Amino acid sequence: MRKTSCPYEILLWINIEDATFLEFLLDQQLADVPIRVLGITPGNIGMQGYKPLFDAARFGIIAQLDDDVIRISTGIGEMATDIFTRRPEVKQLVADTWQDKWTNGARYPLRDYQLYNADDGLYEGKIDGWCSLYHRSVLPVLLTLPYAKYQTIGAYAHYVIDKQGSKSLLCTRMRVLHLSGPYYASLFDRVEAEKAKFSPEVHAPMIALFEQVQAAPPPREVLALALQVAIDGIDAFVPGVTPLQADQPLH
Q1: What are φ and ψ of residue 93, in 5° steps?
Q2: pLDDT tens per residue, range 84-100
């Protein structure tokens, strides 16, 4: 399903050794999907891969997308172009996330945000880079961020952009399926890998939740059904028509 009419390319840094995945990418490139692979490392270098990707971006909007964002709503590129054009103070937009029993997509409850503009569905508050769109003018900011393996790049960019007097905002007229947290991770046998992203000194409750799910995961058929409902929900999302979802606990 094509979801944008904007020109685009997909820039990748590959962190895994997987011949099947590389064959898939080659098939996509042969089918004229605009994919460029900038680097391949046998181990996971985490957020450090973003710097060369940002630097190689060629279009007016630079999109950062987490690898566990598996579905996006239609027209995000067009919407970002429109908002950036009409609101020159806005330099970063982060898409809202699907909310269900198994994930909140890492977005905080909306009560923790302040409405910035109702017509465009814009809110001020805590955001990160699960699906973050940057105006190209802030590329120098992106290239000077601290690129640690598990640095929250989108949140750090938000901090710097706001300090410079511009706006970084959540946009509820865009929605993505971000499979954050341990539940959907268990469906893909990724609990241990996702747990490793958290520091015991800072994220002890989150690590405890991962270990709880690791010991007793929900039934796979239940998660698979919920995942299909979420995918269908993102595909059916209509900005300004589809209502906001009830907030879920942060995990």
Answers
A1: -125, 135
A2: 999 999 999 999 999 99
Q: Tell me the C-alpha to C-alpha distance, in Å, between residue 11 and each of 56, 57, 79, 132, 192.
A: 8, 8, 21, 15, 27
Tokens 């566990």, residue located: 68
Asked if pLDDT for residue 248 goes beyond 80, the answer is no
- What are 90's strand-pairing partners? 167
Residue 41 has pLDDT above 90, yes or no: no
What is the rounded average pLDDT of the residues 218-245? 94
Cα–Cα distance for residue pair 62/53, rounded to 1 Å: 10
pLDDT (average), residues 191-214:
89
Tokens matching residue 142: 């992106």
For residue 133, is pLDDT > 90? Answer: yes
pTM, full prediction: 0.94
What local confidence, expressed as pLDDT, does residue 1 receive?
52
Distance of alpha carbon 131 from alpha carbon 72, whole angstroms: 9
Helical H runs in the chain?
19-30, 50-56, 76-86, 139-143, 153-163, 182-187, 191-195, 204-215, 220-235
**Count of Cβ atoms closer than 10 Å to residue 87 Cβ:** 16
Phi-psi region of 173 (alpha: psi -120 to 50; beta: other; left: phi over 0): alpha
Question: How far apart, in whole angstroms, are the C-alpha atoms of residue 98 and residue 105?
Answer: 6
Six-digit token string for 226: 């919920």
Residue 214 carries which side chain, given as an amino acid letter? Q
Q: Would you say 16 and 43 are in contact if contact means Cβ atoms under 8 Å apart? A: no
Rounded-to-integer distance, Cα 116 and Cα 112, Å: 13
The whole-angstrom separation of Cα 49 and Cα 159 is: 20
Dihedrals phi, psi of 174, to nearest 5 degrees: -125, 145
